[in-house]
Amino acid sequence: xxxxTFFKVxxxxxxxxxxxxxxxTVTENDNSLLQKAxxxxxxxxxxxxxxxxxxxxxxxxxxxxxxxVKFKSEKGVDLIFETSNLTVNGAPYxxxxxxxxxxxxxxxxxxxxxxxxxxxxEGEANPESQLAPLITxxxxxxxxxxxxGQDIDDGVRYRLEVPTELTGGEGEDTEDMIVWTGEEDEDGxxxxxxxxxxxxxxxxxxVEDGKYIMEMLSFGWCNIDKLEALDGYDELTGIFVDAPxxxxxxxxxxxxxxxxxxxxxxxxxxFNYGIQLFDDPYDNIPVxxxxxxxxxxxxxxxxxxxxxQLTVTGYDxxxxxxxxxxxxxxxxxxxxxxxx
Length: 340
Description:
With 340 residues, this protein is an alpha+beta fold. The chain has five helices and 25 strands. 16% of the residues lie in helices and 36% in strands. Strand 4 and strand 5 (91-92) form a beta hairpin. The longest helix is centred in the N-terminal third of the chain and has 14 residues, at 5-18.
C-alpha cells in the first residue's frame, strides 16, 4: 500500500487552514499525549457524535387542526406536515406540536455524527446482517412531541422535499432512490433498512423540479438512498487498519469514502485482538477502487484524525502511526473531510 506524500501534506494544510491561530490543539501531535488519550477516552467518541447530533437539531412548532404547515430547514429542505388526526398513546391530541429535525449531508457531518451510509440489502437489520454501502440523498431525523415531551404517534402524514443539489446529484445519481429507515441502538449506531409499503414493495423517492419527494408516516431516522451497484469491478475484498497502540474498538472508528463520491461513507470498528488490527467485517470493497481511509478517535472534547489514500489491491493493511494523526476541532474535521 502506497500513500502519497503530497496527499498527507495537503490534509495537514487543510487542518491548519480550517482552524484559528488560537486553537492550540490543532498542531498538537505529541506521541505520549495521543497514547494517553487513546487509553482514557473510552466514551469520548460517542460523546462527540451525540453532541454533534444535538447541535444539528432544528426546532419548529405548529398547532393541530388547521391546514398543512410548511417549514424550511437551514439547508433548504421543505418539511410539510398534516395537522389533523394526531394522537398520543392512541388518544386524540389537540394543541401545540413541537418538531425536532436533523439533516445530515456530506462526509464531514456523517463522520462528526457517526452516521455512515450502510444498509441491509434485504430484510430487517440484526447483529448478523451483512451490510452494503449506500449512496445517499440525505439522512434525516424527524420527531413530533407535545410541549410536555410526549411523543406524537406514528401515522401523521408528512413530506420532505430535498433539493438534489445538496448532494450534487443529477442524472443517474438521482435515479432509483428509495426510503430507508433506522433505529438508533444503545451505542448510538443506526443501521439502515428498506422501507416498504403494505404490499412489500420498496417505497420510491421520485424527483420533481430538482427535489427528492419523500413521503413518510413514521418518525425517527430516515434516509434517501440506493445501494451502490459497484459496477465495473469484478473482485471484492476487505482491508485491515493498523492503528497506534491504545486505539481499538472501544475508542476509535474507521471510515472509508470513495474518492470523488461525497454521498457514501462506509464505517466499521471491528477490532481483531489476536492480530491487533481493525478488521473490515464486510469484505465488499472493490479491488481497484480508490478510497480515503479515515481514522478517528477523541481527546478532551476534540477529534483525533488521520486520513490516507488507498488504491485497493486486496486485503490491504493501512498503517497509521502517531505522526499521521492530528488533534482537531469539529469545524476542522468537517472541513478536512468535505474537501477530500
